[in-house]
Amino acid sequence: MTQTQLYIRPFAATESDYLALAAVLADESPEIPLSVSELKVDARHFETQGTLFERFALELGGEIVGFATLLAPFWSASSNKLNTRIAVKRMPGRQEIFAEGFAFVAERAKAYSPDALLSGGRSDDTEKMEFLEQQGFVETMRFPFKRIDLENASLDKFAEHRKRAEESGISIVPLASVKPNRPDWCRELYELENRLMGDVPLPDPYTPMEYEKFEIMANDPEASDHNWFFVAIDPHTNQYIGLTMLFPSKAKKESSFTGLTGILPDYRRRGIASALKLTSFDHARANGVRYIHTDNEENNPMGQLNREMGFRDIFSMVSHERKPAFPA
Ligand SMILES: CC(C)(COP(=O)(O)OP(=O)(O)OC[C@H]1O[C@@H](n2cnc3c(N)ncnc32)[C@H](O)[C@@H]1OP(=O)(O)O)[C@@H](O)C(=O)NCCC(=O)NCCS
User: Fold this and answer.
1) Distance from the alpha carbon of residue 274 to the mean position of ligand 1, in angstroms
2) Does residue 81 sit within a domain?
3) Residue range 137-149: mean pLDDT, rounded
4) 277 occurs within a structural domain
5) Which of 50, 96, 109, 256 is deepest in the core (most CB within 10 A)?
6) 286 burial class (0-12, 13-18, 19+ CB within 10 angstroms)?
7) Is 102 among the domain residues?
8) How large is the average pLDDT for residues 276-287?
9) Ligand 1 probe mutation, 202, 231, 305, most atoms within 8 A of CB
10) C-alpha 145 to ligand 1 mean position (Å)
11) CA 110 to CA 103: how far, in whole Å?
């Protein structure tokens, strides 16, 4: 039992609540700290999407020790499932705080009559894994989280892939440089991403968001810098046929995260994804980034490609589901 009673209140979106959120998340996952500005961008995305997003602070003796969030899953907002995210800093009594935070958001979830509740955590966070199991959640998917050290990576083998892609005439360019000459760059990006996301393994089929919302997010300069987005263009059709993107960390200057990498089906196995990734690595290095992080579902060929490039597993993010949402 926790010594003092847990006080649960709505997240206030103040600087101090955001700082507390950043601290709790960094305590759970020190390798991937998020800055307040990144967390604000994240919240803005949910606001733009207009889907359910309710976050609560968990306070013990006047100090914020965790957060409980109820939200629609980003990949499938139209599914009748709700995500319950519970983050608690590593401390004595953590299991009880998980339980109270979860009970609170699960109770709120009842108003939406979901078919299932979702949750998740790191594979090496045994307290959270045990807690989810106790609550009746079962594992659905695993996403090994990997890192490459660009200073020690040996990527010579992939130069061959890049040569193959270049010889086929495919050009690889930063999105920032093509935008001025392509008035429809955003619509093209939207269509490409939707086609690729349909092939990315996710717990539920991907539901595209409306274009107007995508456009707001794609034009948010704090959310993404298009000098770090690379598109592959087929010169014969002048169409985008693939992309990769990096998100340099604002909390850890020498780190970057990877977003979606994908190639249209007709263009796969020609070295284009490898060429895109090498180009993004060159850009990262030139801008002082040494470590790049990524996560892919464990059976996705992208995971294998990343391992071959020199990415090493650190831990896995594990997705869980409880169905029915409220067992009798
Ligand atoms: C994963 C993906 C990006 C690979 O793109 P690609 O351009 O075909 O990859 P490359 O041609 O650069 O592949 C390089 C090497 O990776 C490995 N590889 C790539 N795809 C593979 C597959 N489907 N099965 C097994 N190995 C594969 C191979 O070793 C390949 O070398 P080889 O063709 O000489 O055997 C593409 O399949 C895709 O768009 N998938 C859907 C989107 C997705 O899931 N993205 C990842 C999540 S972010």
Assistant:
1) 8
2) yes
3) 97
4) yes
5) 256
6) exposed
7) yes
8) 97
9) 305
10) 18
11) 11
Kindly state whether residues 232 and 207 are assigned to the same domain.
Answer: yes
What does the pLDDT read at residue 74?
Answer: 83
Both 106 and 229 in a single domain? no
Say yes or no to pLDDT of 98 above 60.
yes
- Which pLDDT belongs to residue 282? 96
Structural contact between residues 323 and 115, judged by C-beta atoms closer than 8 angstroms: yes
273 lines ligand 1 (CB under 6 A): yes
- Domain of residue 104: give its range: 6-143+318-322
The Cα 326–Cα 232 span in angstroms is: 46
Predicted TM-score (pTM) of this structure: 0.93
- Cα(301) to centroid of ligand 1, in Å? 5
Q: Ligand 1 centre and the CA of 251: distance in Å?
A: 30
Looking at the structure, tell me whether residues 127 and 39 fall in a common domain: yes
How many domains are there within the chain?
2
Cβ neighbours, 10 Å, residue 24: 20
Q: Which atom of ligand 1 is nearest to the CA of 297?
A: 47
pLDDT at 4 over 70: no
Which residue lies with its CA nearest to atom 33 of ligand 1?
A: 269
Kindly state if the Cβ of 271 falls inside 6 Å of ligand 1. Answer: yes
CATH of residue 219? 3.40.630.30
Cβ-Cβ contacts under 8 Å for 168 (sequence gap 6 or more): 270
pLDDT at 287 over 70: yes
Does some domain include residue 327? no
Chain segment 241-266, per-residue pLDDT in tens: 999 999 999 999 999 999 999 999 99
Residue 3: pLDDT over 70: no
Ligand 1 pocket test target in 197, 302, 308 with most atoms within 8 Å of CB: 302
190 shares a domain with 101: no
What is the chain's Cα-based Rg?
21
If asked whether residues 91 and 124 sit together in one domain, one would say yes
